[in-house]
Hints:
By secondary structure, this protein is mainly α. Helix content is 71%, strand content 0%. The chain is elongated and about 65 Å long.
Amino acid sequence: xxxxxxxxxxxxxxxxxxxxxxxxxxxxxxxxxxxxxxxxxxxxxxxxxxxxxxxxxxxxxxxxxxxxxxxxxxxxxxxxxxxxxxxxxxxxxxxxxxxxxxxxxxxxxxxxxxxxxxxxxxxxxxxxxxxxxxxxxxxxxxxxxxxxxxxxxxxxxxxxxxxxxxxxxxxxxxxxxxxxxxxxxxxxxxxxxxxxxxxxxxxxxxxxxxxxxxxxxxxxxxxxxxxxxxxxxxxxxxxxxxxxxxxxxxxxxxxxxxxxxxxxxxxxxxxxxxxxxxxxxxxxxxxxxxxxxxxxxxxxxxxxxxxxxxxxxxxx
Length: 316
């Protein structure tokens, strides 16, 4: 599953903390040493390093990294070092702020995480921000976006493989009827999308394809400029074929006039321990270029080295 290469003999956290202190000491920061340590530790190890660092030096490792590093490299290291549910809580909070608002990030986290993980993200958000994700998402969105996103972020879907085929057939018809009526924000359509298991939704969308001769996402392209329809299509893709959704995010991030570093950093740091290998395979299939080469051609310096290390192609 994971693409991250963790060395077979990992030093104890105390040694990693000593090395990180050395990396911060003196006039210049040793960025290569930071990459060598943090980019090659898994989630459990990174959490232990943070705890040990605080016990040994009375300092918050994340705060020290924040003050020592800068720019896109700083963001990549910070996001990577955060515990995954805290990282997602941070990204959700950021996505509900005026200057960094993003309905796409909210949808992505709601749709591509497991039910248990998303539940823990909500708990982490409570603890950190003293309010709920639902409260902030509702406050910072409106109209159809709010109607879709609030139940998405509060979902707790069944995670198993059990599928009800008669339900899939009838709900495929419901989707088709609502789409034909251009009722894209219909309560039933949103209820199905925000409560059914991913396996059930896959069965429903396969039924849609079989019954009506085309993919549901094609039928949702009535108005290519409609931002809500774009989000609806991405929601379906993210719930059912996340590697295809993320491939597109990366393609748009890399192929833009000027790289979208925020999107690139978010995808690599949040998927490195999940499904980055599948995303990279999809990227190569779709673009005929290996993802690591595309990243290397579009980034530079410590930022490039950090991303490539997270892909398991560390040259540092």
